[in-house]
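DM from R.C. (forwarded with permission)

"hey, sorry to bug you on a friday — could you get me a structure for this? deadline for the figure draft is monday and I only need the backbone to look sensible"
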Amino acid sequence: MAEDPLSVGFLGYRFMGKAHANALARLPMFFPDAPAVERDVLVGTDEAALADATERLGFARYATDWRDVVDDVDVFYNLGPNFLHVDPTIAALSADTHVLCEKPLAPTLDGAGELRDAAAESDAVAACAFNYRFVPAIQYARDLIADGELGDIRQVRGSYLQDWLVDEDAPWSWRNDAELAGSGALGDLGAHTVDLADYLVGDRVGDVERVSGHLRTFVDERPVEGGDETKPVTVDDAYSAQVEYASGAMGTFEASRMTAGHKNDHSIAVHGTDGSLRFSLERLNELEVHTGDSRGYETVLVTDESDPYGDVWWPPGHVVGWEHTFVHENAAFLSQVAASERGDAAETDVPSFADAYDVQRVLDAVVASDERGEWIHLDE
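My reply, with the result:
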């Protein structure tokens, strides 16, 4: 007998709402073994925009208060701004409703700790949406590293560069406010890099032991769209950090939303005693690999049927894109939910709230290092 569809509620219907709704619509076509879902209820505050989004994104109904939703669905997606991550998610977990929460887990380390603890006390699955784990080339890279193809890992370097705030007259948004976002490029972009580095090399280099960080705000205020006033920018425009791992390996990370010419360039490189690899999200079907006696890097097109997700999509060379990472992520998350509902265990690559809390610890240490002008030990 087929299992009943999982009823799903979304908080948020803009950027991430579209990405996840699109993913759910694609699942039956490309992941027929994934659990069936029904897009039940969409939550927002602007009723006119919400009604339109409900129809466009394929939901049955809408609500204007998340409190009316979290114990009325099987799965709750918290896709709202960072400042809305904590309370709705805790309420959902308290009702044993499964949760997928967008990153960063919370604006503050304390908030992330509350969510980690709420997840530990709940019978529900709680996952944080770091979708870049689900790029086929990244999973291919992880397998190479796990198999020892690069030898002992010595260095990992990650950068995430965008240019949407290069113009000093670009309008102010909630992402420019510390109370609403928690941080700027650090949490918005750096969270992805810290998680991806741990996903790729964490099993081989251990935990981050100490951090040195630098934050910089280049534009102190921005205009409010549609008006003559300005609002202060209270988050970082860019950050850089050095980390030391338990093994002695070193990491170098940076992000900026003010790097001209970079649209969505999330790059990561790993260097070991026997080889190296590097990846850029702007060429997400490719992985550059150097191993053995080769004189330089070989570019691998990760689209063969034997590659991660290669048997799901198109023939070799028919590339996949950014949106497909959400399809992969949702297939893994919902499979974990379905297994939990059956009382089974399911291991997936979707990070837990405990994983997301560890990312937040590193981000918090970057801020503390910048404020204090010294290395921060994470066991302090």
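R.C.: lifesaver. The chain has a mean pLDDT of 96.
me: no worries. Residues 185-205 form the longest helix (21 residues).
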